[in-house]
Amino acid sequence: MLQNARDQDVNRALVIVPVLASGAIHREHVIRDPVARLSEAVGLAKAIDLTVVEAVSVRLTRPNAAAFLGKGKVQELAALIDSRQISLAIVDVALSPVQQRNLERGWQVKVLDRTGLILEIFGRRARTKEGKLQVELAHLVYQRSRLVRSWTHLGRQRGGFGFLGGPGETQIESDRRKLRERIARLRAEIGQVRAQRRMHRARRKRDEFRSIALVGYTNAGKSTLFNQLAGTHVQSSPMLFTTLDPTVRAIALPKGSSAVLSDTVGFISHLPTMLVAAFRATLEEVTDADLILHVRDISSAESDAQREDVRAVIRQIGLDPDNADRFIEVWNKIDTVDLEGRPAVYNQASRDASGTEVFVVSAKIGAGLDALRRGIEKRLLLDRAVVKRSPEPPQSEEMEDGVAHLAPK
């Protein structure tokens, strides 16, 4: 009876956030506020239209090698899953293949760990050919160790959703040779994308366009800031990972100089390593940028922790986040900070000890953006003479199948 109910609604989800005791060490764990972690995990689940039936934090002394959670907690949650007719369990840590398989056997439902959930979201968000290639590559690298034969007890479930469909839908998981061949082909295609991107960046440099890239935690307001600076209407939303495919636009700066501005995918804590590697072609827009704006949601209680998560990814792609000559911090969403707290934010920004220049703004209402534009132009012109542009209007890059093409703005 319960199995039939699950078959009818594969979107009923349980979100589980393991919270390790103080002093416990685990390679995937960063000490954060448990309430904020739970809220973020629920937001990730809702980003792929799941119905979150229950969301719980589970405290444990140390991870269990067999199932991450202890035997007693696994049995307790199994009863909850049965009673609430839950069809999917999301565990907000990176599980080993063995841990994932054991939880699925214990609960008799499909289990997604944090890595799998983020990959699922990226699979839903990719729109261009480039984005789809990169997501598929990351997904197959992840799936390589999670073959479908380990999910045989789920054989009665219908379909599935996104990339992580039901068993029997594809032979990739059951054929390692085909899996390796597909990964090799994807890497070759992404290599072509990287070559095309390098060509377009070289052309922009020949045209004397300086480049600016936006980075930041997901939902920090990068796309809203991009729209304000570039005068465009790139989709922005409070939903996590609204932006996945990169967008590049030419912008005019206050004193007449021009630059190209790139909006990139948002980062998140424990961003899967294979996803960073797969998106290297896209992230080269960041690594090759003359100036990088690190956009932060300064209204979030987790702003400092999110900053460190972004800096960790920046290091992964070979950059030094402490390079104050190349980075500017943009403290966004000041309009959502209560009036009594705003002076403290401005005071902290003026005294920031990191050496990185800080601008406090609200991309939503436009506050502080004129000062930011002046700061960007000043930084870009510090090490070079002003180049006079031809009377032709600034150009923007339109994305077609993941390839940038210059087009009139």
Distance between the termini: 59 Å
Could you say which structural class the secondary elements and strand pairing correspond to?
alpha/beta
Work out the radius of gyration.
Answer: 23 Å
Approximate helicity band: 25-40%
For the report, how would you describe the main beta sheet? 6 strands, mixed
- The fourth-level CATH homologous superfamily of the largest domain is P-loop containing nucleotide triphosphate hydrolases
Number of DSSP helices? 13
What is the tally of beta strands? Answer: 14
Whole-number mean pLDDT: 79
Percent in strands: 15-25%
- List low-confidence stretches: 1-8, 23-30, 148-164, 166-173, 385-409
Strand order of the largest sheet: 8-9-7-10-11-12
Q: What is the CATH topology classification name of the largest domain? A: Rossmann fold
In short:
The chain has 409 residues and is an alpha/beta fold. The protein has helices spanning 2-8, 34-46, 71-83, 97-107, 114-125, 129-143, 176-206, 222-230, 273-278, 280-287, 303-316, 342-350, 369-381, and strands at residues 12-20, 51-60, 88-91, 110-113, 160-161, 164-165, 210-216, 247-252, 258-263, 291-297, 327-332, 357-360, 395-400, 403-408.
